[in-house]
Amino acid sequence: MDTTGIPHPPRRVPFLGDVLGVNPRTPVRDTVRLGRELGPIFTRKVMGTEIVFVSDAAMVAQLNDETKFTKHVGLGVANLRAIAGDGLFTAHTSEPNWRLAHDILQPAFTLEAMRGYHPIMAEVAADLVKSWDAKANGDDTVDVAADMTKLTLETIGRTGFGYRFSSFERERPHPFVVAMTRALRYAQLQSVRLPFVRRAIAGTAAQNQADIRSMNDLVDEVIAARRPGEGEDLLALMLASPHPVTGERLDPVNIRNQVITFIVAGHETTSGALSFALYYLTRNPRALAAAREEVDAMWGDQLDPEPTFTEVTKLRYVRRVLDESMRLWPTAPGYLRGAREDVVLGGRYPMRKGDHALVMLPLLHRDPAVWGPDPEAFDPDRFAPGEARKRPAHAYKPFGTGERACIGRQFAIHEAVLALGLVLHRYEFVPDPAYELRIAESLTLKTDGFRLALRLRAKPAPEPAANSSSQRRKDY
Ligand code: MNH
Questions:
Q1: Which residues, at least 6 apart from 343, have a Cβ–Cβ distance to it below 8 Å?
Q2: What is the full DSSP assignment across 368-410?
Q3: Where are the domains of the chain?
Q4: Which CATH class is domain 60-335+370-471?
Q5: How far apart, in whole angstroms, are the C-alpha atoms of residue 110 and residue 115?
Q6: 69: closest CA among 473, 401, 317, 452?
Q7: Distance from the alpha carbon of residue 412 to the mean position of ligand 1, in angstroms
Q8: CA pair distance 1, 197, nearest whole angstrom
Q9: Cα distance between residue 278 and residue 4, in whole Å
């Protein structure tokens, strides 16, 4: 797009662009800092690519207008097509497979459908608790982001495809995870135009080909092992269900792309959100106390509560903690919108059909005009009943917008509230007071180096009862 008149950082260097004072490890945080100086629309040019960033709620509302804009597959998302092809996340809205897959899969992501996944989600949360119990009450600490990633990967694997990565039982990550992590890093570094830098960080093209092949092979095995009519998961739906209107089906290559898409999209973002939520809870005693009060009111002195679906949906404060964490650090920090026709953004910036701009969520979510004078303050009550209605409709968009918004939103929220609720009920968290938040930035955001020691919370002695399973847990 024509960027004359849009502010950009001072000291632009020929060819390299806006690289002064920019650390390649922290592009999102640097952009947040820049945005505070440059205002709600600005550009950055990095290695020849210029990106327009937008964070003003009114301009974002315009970009979110589905009649004038749609998702633009560019930057990091475009690079992922080597891995996920025309899967839901990486498909162009105009690709026929996008709508076909969207319509076939939509029923698998309703709140009602979550009822079906709930028992498996609870089983995985119980696995997390078991692994944390083994480290509680001693000198051990847990790496929060790593363990949340085990939880979310296991959850999408088992609920989506009946596949166990056995994350909690392994010393080293599953080979699929090794290949996926490296392939994602490789994809992300496609935009780096210095091949030797890229090779040093992400390995060779041959390695990348091998990684993608090994991911495909595992997925193909899982699909081949599935007998017709078996299971009630995402895979069963994709194999068995024709489009509700046209009767068309997903082809095998597309199904493979979807499986890989769900594994990638379905775990990194949710695990990051859980990690930030735990980080903020350990820094905000009042929020922690309020969240504790809620889970204690729900599960009281039960030693091993078995949360029901409905109980999880009633943990409203825990949900607010999650919402507020995703306000400050939306783990998918932005999304691109492309113009369907010539438009003028914000009444001042002409965009031609096909031009695109990035909605910069951490800045949108800090706009003082919307969030008040102290947007950095962590306050879950910003999401108390009625509060959202007082804000402009497009001021909070951690799950994206319109028909290309996150299909897994309810899934992520149910999974995360369940796990957060359980660990809040069970453990006292002992953070390292010297830890200052660091963020690992890849395609998504995660806490970096955030560790917790855990203490099992003291509970009143259980009523003596014959054959009570809780009797066995003397350590509680
Ligand atoms: Mn998810 C799209 C954020 C969890 C599967 N997701 C998006 C988009 C955002 C997003 C933002 C839109 C991106 C864009 O416009 O380019 N997603 C999240 C966050 C979490 C999350 C913050 C957790 C917290 N997502 C999940 C889970 C799943 C999932 C869990 C699957 C089980 N997301 C998707 C898919 C898409 C998507 C699939 C693409 C949907 C489409 O375009 O049709």
A1: 62, 68, 69, 350, 351
A2: HHHH-S-TTS--GGGGSTTTGGGS-TTS--TT--GGGS-TTHH
A3: 60-335+370-471
A4: mainly alpha
A5: 9
A6: 401
A7: 9
A8: 29
A9: 43
Tens place of pLDDT per residue across the chain (476 aa): 889 889 998 877 666 666 666 677 888 998 999 999 999 999 998 767 889 999 999 999 999 999 999 999 998 899 999 999 999 999 999 999 999 999 999 999 998 889 999 999 999 999 999 999 999 999 999 999 999 999 999 999 999 999 999 999 998 999 999 999 999 988 888 766 666 777 777 788 899 999 999 999 999 999 999 988 888 889 998 999 999 999 999 999 999 999 999 999 988 899 999 999 999 999 999 999 999 999 999 999 898 999 999 999 999 999 999 999 999 999 999 999 999 999 999 999 999 999 999 999 999 999 999 999 999 999 999 999 999 999 999 999 999 999 999 999 999 999 999 999 999 999 999 999 999 999 999 889 999 999 999 999 976 565 565 554 444 343 33
What six digits make up the tokens of 265? Answer: 């999209």
Phi, psi angles (nearest 5°) of residue 342: -65, 130
* Catalytic residue from among 159, 261, 269, 444: 269
Structure-block tokens of residue 212: 């993608």
**Nearest C-alpha neighbor of 26 from the set 450, 448, 434:** 448
> Is the CB of 408 within 6 Å of ligand 1?
yes
Nearest to 363 by CA among 6, 54, 62, 63: 54
Alpha carbon of 354 to those of 5, 97, 167, 313, 335: distances in Å?
20, 21, 42, 41, 15
Nearest protein Cα to ligand 1, atom 41 = 404
Residue nearest to atom 21 of ligand 1 (CA): 269
- Residues 57 and 394: beta-carbon distance below 8 Å: yes
DSSP output for 149-202:
HHHHHHHHHHHHHS----GGG-SS--HHHHHHHHHHHHHHGGG---HHHHHHHH
Residue 176 known to be catalytic: no
